[in-house]
């Protein structure tokens, strides 16, 4: 059955609608004619206020009853498919995939190996170095004495996201102190250059479409101003990274372009979810969400519909979704 013919049955559950990726994904799916069920563990998450959304509060993915409650929600609301915008819940979703399929909820999830490489920055470093792909030198706290002097550093959570608890420093002695403050830390060599994000869709055969954009202004890890660009060398290196990680589906890659350096392109992370600024890819001509739906429903991905124009700019801003009286007086 074609994707157009199943449009009327597109009832999609989107998790994590309080974050920018989930928020924009839910809204874009609505524009594609889907009925969207949106969940978030935060009762004041902005995405729960989206007009037309079927909003439900969820448990945090770390809660012991997370899986039970998610299955109960699916049995009650009967979504036809699920898209996750929260990487930390992917291990639980992988464990639930067979049960979700049995109750009629389609998923398009990467392998456990790919999830590990995306969520664990130390594992990501290991995978990329094994494949000869340039990535920032990474140390665990017990290796801190091996860091060379004069190397600018960044200390960050090993499993973190959204630039939370990321601290820059100049010496390994400073990094040693920061490791006491940053949860589950790693230390990386700091990389400077033109930061970019690649919005990607990888089909089940491993073929990838890559849409590149420079991150011109970033706040709290979210790209607020961005511009699309074409660079065959960057696109090839992103595709190599996707193969090394072994990921499929909708995802994004981040890195730096450093003109004048021996290693011109350095890759810093892969996220097994939509990026916070993926709407720019679509505004530049790539049918990113439409083709994600095609793959989610088991159809072929039309990569010729994922071409895009360079020089298209995005500026994000804060908007007011709802104003209401809070009965608790907050």
Describe the fold and architecture.
There is one protein chain. This protein has 3 domains: 7-107, Rossmann fold; 137-189, Dna Ligase, domain 1 (2-Layer Sandwich), CATH 3.30.1490; 192-315, D-amino Acid Aminotransferase, Chain A, domain 1 (2-Layer Sandwich). It has helices at residues 20-31, 66-77, 90-102, 112-119, 121-130, 172-178, 232-245, 279-283, 288-296; strands at 11-15, 35-40, 54-57, 81-84, 138-139, 153-157, 167-169, 185-189, 194-202, 208-219, 222-228, 249-257, 265-271, 313-315. The chain has a 6-stranded antiparallel sheet. The chain has a 4-stranded parallel sheet with strand order 3-2-1-4, with helices on one face. The chain has a 4-stranded antiparallel sheet with strand order 5-8-6-7, with helices on both faces. Strand 1, helix 1 (20-31) and strand 2 form a beta-alpha-beta unit. Residues 1-6 have low confidence and may be disordered. Helix 2 (66-77) runs parallel beside helix 3 (90-102). It has 9 helices and 14 strands. The protein is α+β, with helices and mostly antiparallel strands.
Compact overview of the structure:
Helices cover about 25% and strands about 25% of the residues.
Summed over residues and divided by their number, the pLDDT gives a mean of: 93
The count of strands amounts to 14
Spatial ordering of strands, largest sheet: 13-12-9-10-11-14
Total count of helical runs of at least 4 residues: 9
Assign the CATH class of the largest domain: Alpha Beta
Q: Considering the protein shown, what is the CATH homologous superfamily of the largest domain?
A: ATP-grasp fold, B domain
Residue ranges: pLDDT <50 for 5 or more in a row? 1-6
Shape, per Cα inertia axes? globular
CATH hierarchy: architecture of the largest domain: 2-Layer Sandwich
Question: Per DSSP, what share of the residues sits in E-state strands of 2 or more residues?
Answer: 15-25%
Oligomer designation = single chain
Output the structural class. Answer: alpha+beta
- Would you tell me which CATH topology of the largest domain applies? D-amino Acid Aminotransferase, Chain A, domain 1
Biggest β-sheet: count, sense, barrel? 6 strands, antiparallel
Helix and strand pattern: EHEEHEHHHEEEHEEEEHEEHHE
Number of domain modules: 3
Residues in helices, as a percent range: 25-40%
> What's the end-to-end separation, in Å?
49 Å
Rg result: 20 Å
């Amino acid at each position: 059955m074609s994707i157009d013919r199943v449009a009327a049955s597109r009832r999609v559950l989107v998790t994590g609608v309080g974050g920018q990726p989930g928020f924009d994904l839910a809204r874009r799916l609505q524009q594609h004619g889907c009925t969207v069920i949106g969940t978030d563990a935060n009762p004041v998450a902005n995405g729960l206020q989206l007009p037309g959304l079927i909003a439900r509060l969820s448990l945090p993915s770390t809660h012991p009853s997370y899986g039970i409650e998610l299955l109960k929600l699916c049995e009650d609301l009967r979504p036809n498919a699920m898209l996750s915008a929260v990487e930390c819940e992917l291990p639980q979703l992988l464990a639930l995939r067979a049960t979700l399929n049995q109750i009629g909820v389609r998923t398009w999830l990467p392998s456990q190996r790919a999830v590990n490489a995306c969520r664990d920055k130390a594992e990501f470093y290991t995978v990329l170095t094994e494949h000869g792909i340039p990535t920032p030198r990474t140390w665990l706290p017990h290796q801190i004495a091996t860091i060379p002097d004069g190397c600018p550093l960044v200390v960050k959570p090993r499993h973190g996201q959204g630039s939370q608890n990321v601290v820059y420093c100049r010496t390994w002695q400073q990094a040693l102190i920061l490791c006491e403050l940053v949860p589950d830390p790693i230390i990386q060599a700091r990389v400077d250059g033109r930061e970019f994000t690649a919005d990607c869709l990888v089909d089940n055969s491993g073929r990838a479409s890559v849409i590149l954009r420079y991150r011109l202004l970033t706040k709290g890890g979210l790209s607020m101003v961005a511009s699309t660009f074409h660079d065959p060398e960057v696109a090839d290196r992103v595709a190599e990274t996707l193969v090394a990680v072994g990921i499929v589906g909708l995802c994004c890659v981040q890195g730096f372009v450093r003109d004048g350096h021996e290693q011109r392109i350095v890759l810093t992370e892969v996220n097994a979810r939509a990026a916070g600024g993926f709407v720019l890819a679509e505004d530049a001509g790539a049918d990113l969400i439409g083709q994600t739906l095609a793959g989610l429903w088991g159809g072929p991905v039309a990569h010729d519909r994922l071409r895009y124009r360079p020089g298209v700019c995005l500026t994000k801003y804060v908007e007011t979704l709802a104003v209401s009286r809070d009965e608790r007086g907050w």
